Amino acid sequence: MTTFRALNVTALDRDAFIETFGGIYEHAPWIAARAYDMGVDESLNEVETLRERMARILDEADHEAQLSVIRAHPDLAGKAAVAGELTDSSRREQAGAGIDQCSPEEFAEFERLNNAYKKRFGFPFIIAVAGLDRYAILEAFRTRIEHDRETERRTALVQAHRIAANRLVQMT
């Protein structure tokens, strides 16, 4: 199991815990707050244990709370990215996939797909971009836009969990 090397989770008070882990799920510090409120012990120094707890909190949340987490994600190569308004984590993740290097035609396709996807589903396209390049992301976009709303909502939650897991691992 992977542990947090430079961080002793059990030594954090509630505010520090939320400050440290509140951005693991995009703009959803309530998940970290609930994770802390469930009790902090040595097991939370294991990345997998904390990941499982936070994922369970989101999975057990009501439909509207889940959608709020999904809706908090920025569009890929969207206006927030162009304007430099992404969270540090989102900026690094998108840059790591080469999204910041899109040609004007690719940016236009991202914009077209972002708009069509949000119109169809009512929330932004979410994908864990780690290990993917912009071509694979565009292909996933084109495929997933054909899903029904419930399938895509569930897929978005799975992707949000993957993003959260990647963010936790980066803290080790």
Q: Helices, strands, pairings?
A:
Blueprint: H1 14-21, H2 29-37, H3 47-60, H4 63-71, H5 79-82, H6 88-96, H7 104-121, H8 134-144, H9 149-170
Helix pairs in contact: 1-2, 2-3, 3-9, 4-9
What is this structure, in a nutshell?
This protein has about 170 residues and is mainly α.
From the structure above, extract its key features.
0% strand, EC 4.1.1.97, globular, 172 residues, mainly alpha, 2-oxo-4-hydroxy-4-carboxy-5-ureidoimidazoline decarboxylase activity, UraD-like, 2 domains, single chain, 9 helices, OHCU_decarboxylase-1
What report would you give on this structure?
- The chain is mainly α and 172 residues long.
- It folds into 2 domains: 9-67; 74-170, Orthogonal Bundle (UraD-like), CATH 1.10.3330.
- It is built from 9 helices and no strands.
- It has helices spanning 14-21, 29-37, 47-60, 63-71, 79-82, 88-96, 104-121, 134-144, 149-170.
- Helix 1 (14-21) packs across helix 2, helix 3 (47-60) runs antiparallel to helix 9 and helix 4 (63-71) crosses helix 9.
- The longest helix has 22 residues, at 149-170.
- It is globular and about 50 Å long.
- The chain starts with 13 loop residues before the first helix and ends with a helix.
Number of domains: 2
Tell me the Rg in angstroms: 17 Å
- How many DSSP E strands? 0
Tell me the name of the CATH homologous superfamily of the largest domain: Oxo-4-hydroxy-4-carboxy-5-ureidoimidazoline decarboxylase
How many strands, which pairing sense, and closed or not: the largest β-sheet? Answer: none
Structural class: mainly alpha
| Element pattern in H and E | HHHHHHHHH
Task: Estimate the mean pLDDT confidence.
Answer: 90
Quote the CATH topology of the largest domain: UraD-like
Figure out the total of helices.
Answer: 9
Tell me, briefly, the overall form: globular
Strand-residue proportion: under 5%
Which CATH architecture of the largest domain?
Orthogonal Bundle
Helix content: 55-70%
| The CATH C-level class name of the largest domain | Mainly Alpha
Note the gap between the termini. Answer: 11 Å
